[in-house]
Design a protein that fits this description.
Helix content is about 45%, strand content about 10%. By secondary structure, the protein is of the alpha/beta class. The chain folds into two domains: about 325 residues, 3-Layer(aba) Sandwich (Rossmann fold), CATH 3.40.50; about 40 residues, no CATH class. Helix 7 links the parallel strand 3 and strand 4. About 40% of the residues are buried. Bound molecules: thiamine diphosphate and magnesium ion (MG).
């Protein structure tokens, strides 16, 4: 009996709003309303301004490092907008628009990159995990969270975001395997921006797409235009419906980072200017603006007012982040263990003293 292999598999590709701002009305039916699109445009624009401000904070020595999100806002905003309040977001580090929409205060991300652990303290009732710098590890956390939802019979779904490079990590394959074998309400959202720092997709994996990896695990797979909020929204909404029935989805959102990998990188050393210029024309914000203007839902006056609002809002966010009281040295110890092991307890108590000898715990240490 012949077996159908990946070579015969068809890859589903979805685009609803093209680069020129033209909408496929048939595919768009039942997706985003005009009000939703205006909100998403304003939200993405505010996130872009936040991104620019964060970049400048790093350049002026007020933040350690920062990975720009510029160019990838639609993938994060469109998918994040589909998630319900009770659903969980398990992010990488280029999904600010999804996190902020889901309720994470903007100053948290700034604090994280300023090296303040309090940036990782998620407020009660906001269902997101802290951003993950180790590539890929968090995908297993998403599968675990989804497993808990299933065991508790809760109507909740976990979505995890990651890059194309992360799909070359073992964690991706383990998480996909767990999620599909255990039939978990889990969504895998890959932002394929063609590059893993300076390594292009074709040097990193033999497969021509990320989505074909879904086939090996019997997950549903769909490839979408990652710069199209309609497509990202619809693919995620459909994936939620599938997840609730126990079928995980792998969404490959084809996008591009218009900035450097992080502020520690200079992409001009390995990327062609022509490639960058071509992707600038596919800017996810630009096409939404054209679409809205064509529908008479947007104009220059509204744009000017939005820019002023975004500026005022983000200025306040920066003030909140920089104005926070400096942490005490206790902060180094307080976030990993519920009960500190004895050695760390001694270190915590003696960190700001001249020596260890004056504390009785030292005796225990020597013993
Ligand atoms: C486990 C691990 N290995 C290596 C790194 C170093 N590193 C940081 S980002 C990155 C590339 C990630 O590429 P991709 O997954 O495509 O995400 P992108 O940055 O393009 O959004 C690497 C290798 C890391 N952070 N963690
Ligand atoms: Mg990448």
């Amino acid at each position: 009996m012949p077996i159908t292999t990946a070579y015969e598999a068809k890859i589903e590709h979805l685009q609803i709003l093209d680069e020129t701002g033209k909408l496929d009305a048939r595919l768009a039916r039942g997706t985003l309303t005009d009000k939703d699109v205006v909100y998403l445009y304003e939200h993405m624009s505010t996130c872009r301004h936040y991104d620019e401000v964060a970049f400048k904070l790093q350049r002026s020595g007020r933040m350690g490092t920062y990975p720009q999100n510029i160019g990838q806002e639609a993938a994060a905003a469109g998918s994040g907008f589909a998630m319900r309040k009770q659903d969980y977001i398990v992010p990488c580090y280029r999904e600010n628009a999804a996190l902020f929409h889901h309720g994470l205060p903007m100053e948290k991300i700034l604090l994280h990159w300023m090296g303040d652990e309090r940036g990782n303290e998620i407020p009660e009732g906001v269902h997101v995990l802290p951003i993950s710098i180790p590539i890929g590890t968090h995908m297993l956390h998403a599968a675990g969270i989804a497993w808990a939802f299933k065991l508790r019979k809760e109507d909740r779904v976990a979505i995890t975001y990651f890059g194309d490079g992360a799909t070359s990590e073992g964690d991706f394959h383990e998480a996909m395997n767990f999620a599909t074998t255990l039939k978990l309400p889990c969504i895998f959202f890959c932002q394929n921006n063609s590059w893993a720092i300076s390594v292009p997709r074709e040097k990193q994996m033999a497969s021509k797409t990320v989505v074909q990896k879904a086939l090996a695990y019997e997950a549903h797979g769909i490839r979408v235009d990652g710069n199209d909020i309609f497509a990202c929204y619809k693919a995620t909404k459909d994936a939620i419906a599938r997840a609730k029935k126990g079928q995980p989805t792998l969404i490959e959102a084809v996008t591009y980072r218009l900035g450097d990998h992080t502020t520690a990188d200079d992409a001009r050393r390995y990327r062609d200017q022509a490639e960058l210029d071509a992707w600038k024309k596919k800017d996810p914000l630009l096409r939404v603006r054209i679409y809205l203007e064509n529908k008479k839902l947007w104009n220059d006056k509204k744009q000017t007012a939005l820019e002023a609002r975004a500026k005022e809002f983000v200025t306040q966010v920066v003030k909140n982040a920089e104005g926070i009281e400096a942490p005490t040295t206790d902060d180094i110890f307080d976030h990993t263990f519920a009960t500190l092991p004895e050695q760390l307890l001694v270190q915590k108590r003696t960190l700001r003293t001249n020596g260890l000898g004056q504390f009785p715990e030292q005796e225990t240490l020597r013993a």
